[in-house]
């Protein structure tokens, strides 16, 4: 995972060169947000799934960088005072603390824009249909009916009693769809046949759901030092999570079940998918 | 222009259907921002240039809607308290006043995302290369080295003494590039040969520059009622504009010169470009 993270970070470094002149501060804020550490789970997914379909690593790394930019933008905007108002991210001051609010808004906007721009510039051997598909799928995963919609519902439902089904839907939108997209992007790049596309999509969906429940468990159990962001936030904000609904033990068991299910979708890929199977273990056992 | 605006607004209405459920508020804010009036200058440009190259109006209207979404997102974010802090837009409360700050941030994010999504879904007779080009050009016009970069420079340079050349560059980034893109998008859709692409790009560039100077003149001379937003903002914020640098009369003459130059680039298109030539007059003579 570390090796993949380095490949993704190299691509990010190349895709966000620091200019001279007054726009330098904006690019600095973008680089601060996207190059300041993180597990690169989404980038790893792109790279590993792409390698199942023999995609050139340099090509996959650009798509991985695009997804990481999109993820970073969502964190920068979510941390803003008007949103979750969080001062800590990946153990560092969040973007609006390190720079200022206006710069953080613009850096997020520019990262989102750059994510799309990078996708249509990926070298897919002139297969522009694949590039269009990547853009369409990213738009669907991140827009009003994806991540942004999930964030909106999340904010509206603070202090409200949500059912398990409602929380599942909210989290599928807010976190799950981008994780699922990351897996699917690798398959789109590799022009995978449709039955394999479906397996990869199902894998990504269950992995994303397991990841989010594990995140909620960490928010309850972890310390800020471990998780690199403010702990106990959900409870303090009166947010319903699978932990508050099911209790800690049941939530843990549910996450493990989802992770196992995710791994099962990969069985037909055999040894080639070993890193992805290991990832399903990692997402539910991680401490940060 | 009114007829074109209606075509664009019909496309926007179709592309942003109101859902049931908790994400409704987000789409309402998006619709409020993008369907709340406006001249539709950018949409008009897409449609009129596309018609020079015999593009189907329904196809051009979608690209026009995409540009208007992008423009609306930039206004919503620019009006935020952390940015220009403006309560009035198109004669109505700005988005964060009509809704709230978090909703306005998310609505802007979702409009930006949707703009890209719509572009790759345009029916270009399976010409996915053209769709990719549209996305790449929009990214370049709106990202860190385009509109967002211009907004950043604008905020950093408040109260500073900028030269005429610096103001020209700032405005080219902040407003000019999206107007130029709108013209070019019509030519990309129409697969225009490269010499015509260049003429259209040069037309768009000078039209955009003329438009921005005219906007600065209106900000100095107009009333809030006429221009639908707070008047005298630039001077109050200590922002350098072509008016503050050249004086009102010189600025007016410079805008007229640019508009004329823009019209000249269209001469080889003859009668078909009459509406676009009329537009070059309109941008410098408008009162709102």
Automatic annotation (TrEMBL), chains A, B:
UniProt keyword annotations, A-Z: Isoprene biosynthesis, Magnesium, Metal-binding, Transferase
InterPro entries tied to this protein: Isoprenoid_synthase_dom_sf (IPR008949), Polyprenyl_synt (IPR000092), Polyprenyl_synt_CS (IPR033749), Prenyl_diphosphate_synthase (IPR053378)
Record bears the keyword Transferase: yes
GO BP annotations listed: terpenoid biosynthetic process
GO cellular component: cytoplasm
Source species, domain of life: Bacteria
Matching Pfam families: polyprenyl_synt
GO function terms (MF aspect): metal ion binding; prenyltransferase activity
Cofactor: Mg(2+)
NCBIfam families according to UniProt: FPPsyn (NF045485)
PANTHER family in the record: FARNESYL DIPHOSPHATE SYNTHASE
Family assignment from sequence similarity: Belongs to the FPP/GGPP synthase family.
Protein name from the UniProt record: Polyprenyl synthetase family protein
Source organism (scientific name): Acidisoma cellulosilyticum
Lineage: Bacteria, Pseudomonadati, Pseudomonadota, Alphaproteobacteria, Acetobacterales
């Amino acid at each position: 995972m570390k090796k993949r993270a380095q490949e993704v970070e190299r691509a990010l470094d190349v895709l966000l060169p620091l200019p001279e002149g007054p726009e330098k501060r904006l690019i600095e804020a973008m680089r601060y947000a996207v190059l300041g550490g993180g597990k690169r789970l989404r980038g790893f997914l792109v790279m590993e799934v792409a390698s199942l379909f023999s995609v050139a690593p340099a090509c996959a790394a650009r798509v991985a960088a695009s997804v990481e930019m999109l993820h970073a933008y969502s964190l920068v905007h979510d941390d803003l005072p008007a949103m979750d108002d969080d001062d800590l991210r990946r153990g560092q001051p969040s973007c609006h603390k390190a720079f200022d609010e206006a710069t953080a808004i613009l850096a997020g906007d520019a990262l989102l824009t750059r994510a799309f721009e990078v996708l249509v510039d990926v070298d897919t051997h002139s297969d522009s249909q694949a590039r269009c598909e990547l853009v369409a799928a990213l738009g669907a995963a991140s827009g009003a009916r994806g991540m942004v919609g999930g964030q909106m519902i999340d904010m509206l439902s603070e202090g409200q009693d949500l059912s398990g089904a409602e929380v599942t839907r909210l989290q599928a939108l807010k976190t799950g769809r981008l994780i699922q997209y990351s897996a699917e992007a690798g398959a789109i790049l590799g022009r995978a046949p449709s039955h394999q596309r479906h397996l990869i999509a199902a894998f990504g969906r269950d992995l994303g759901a397991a990841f989010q429940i594990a995140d909620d468990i960490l928010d309850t159990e972890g310390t800020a030092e471990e998780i690199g962001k403010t702990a106990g936030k959900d409870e303090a904000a009166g947010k319903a999570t699978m932990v508050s609904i099911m209790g800690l033990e049941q939530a843990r068991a549910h996450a493990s079940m989802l992770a196992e299910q995710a791994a099962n979708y990969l069985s037909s890929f055999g040894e080639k998918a070993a890193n992805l199977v290991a990832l399903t273990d990692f997402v539910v056992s991680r401490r940060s």
